[in-house]
C-alpha cells in the first residue's frame, strides 16, 4: 500500500482557552509551532475558544478573533492550552522596574469556568506563563510539580502550597499536565508537544524553520548564571565574574580570585554575597555547569575532555555536580538536550 493509499490518522485537535487581556505571545508562540508543524506533515486542528465567542483583547495592543464560544467546543479533544494574562480591568503602572506588579488570571471568573469545563475533555492540558495559576486555582495541579514565569514562582508556591513549584525549569510535565515558564518558553513547550506527537525529526525541522538555535529540554534553566546575578558595583568584582564565565576551566579557587581582586578571602565572600547573591564557590560551579552543558549539547567530546575544559577536573566530579544540580548524569543530559525532552513520555 502506497503512502497515498494508506489512511491518514485523524487530526489532533488543540483548543486554546482565551479570555480578555490574554498575553499575546503566550498564544502566538505555540500557535505558530503547531501551524508550522502542519507544514511538515503534522495534522493539528487548532480552535480558539472564548467564553462568549467574542474576540478577546490582549496585553499587546491587538485583539484576537476566536473560532467559537465555550458552549460550542468539542466534547473530546487532544490538547488544551491555557495562556497567561491579567484581569481585564488591570493596568500596568508605567515605570522602571524589573518585575511588573501584575495580577494573575486565577482572579478571572470567566477563565476559571472555561478551563474548568474544558480540562476534563482534553487528553493533556498545558499552561503557558501565568496560565498555571488557572490550573492551580481549579486544583488540577495539587500534589504535582509545576512551573510558571520566574517572577511568579514564589507567589504560586505561596498561594497554592499543595503544588511543588520548580522555579528554574522551562516546562514541567507531571501526568497529563504540562506547565511552561514565561512568554517565549511557549516555543519550547510547543516543540516538546510536537515531538511527543510526531517525533523528534519533525520537531527539529520546525525548530530550524522557526530559527530556534536549540530545542531546549524542559529541565533547562530559565536563566544563565550571569543573568541571575545583579550587576556588581565593584569593577574589580565584575572583572572576576567576567573571567570565570569566559574561561571556567582556569584556576578560580577562592585564593586565586581573592588575589586577583586584591582583597582577603573573607572580604571576597562578603562581596559575592552582597553583590551577586551567592558564594564565590557556588558561582564558579554554576558557570562550569553551564559550560559543560553547552559542550555536551554542541559537540562530541568525551566526558573527560568536557570535564577538563569546563573546569571540573574529572568526569567523576562533573557527574556528581550534574546529578546534584540537575538530577541526571551528563550522558543523560546530552541525549535529552538533543531532543525537546518530552517525546519519550507515553500518554
From TrEMBL:
Look up the domain of life of the source: Bacteria
Identify the InterPro entries for this entry.
Class_I_gatase-like, DJ-1/PfpI, Homeodomain-like_sf, HTH_AraC, INH-QAR
- Transcription listed as a keyword: yes
| SUPFAM superfamilies in the cross-refs | Class I glutamine amidotransferase-like, Homeodomain-like
Q: Does the keyword Transcription apply?
A: yes
Return one GO MF term. DNA-binding transcription factor activity
Domain spans labelled HTH araC/xylS-type:
238-336
- Report the PROSITE patterns cross-referenced here: HTH_ARAC_FAMILY_2
- Output this protein's name: GlxA family transcriptional regulator
* UniProt cross-references to Pfam families, sorted A to Z: DJ-1_PfpI, HTH_18
The alphabetized UniProt keywords are: Transcription, Transcription regulation
Q: Output the SMART domains linked to this UniProt entry.
A: HTH_ARAC (SM00342)
User: What species was this sequence derived from?
Assistant: Mycolicibacterium fluoranthenivorans
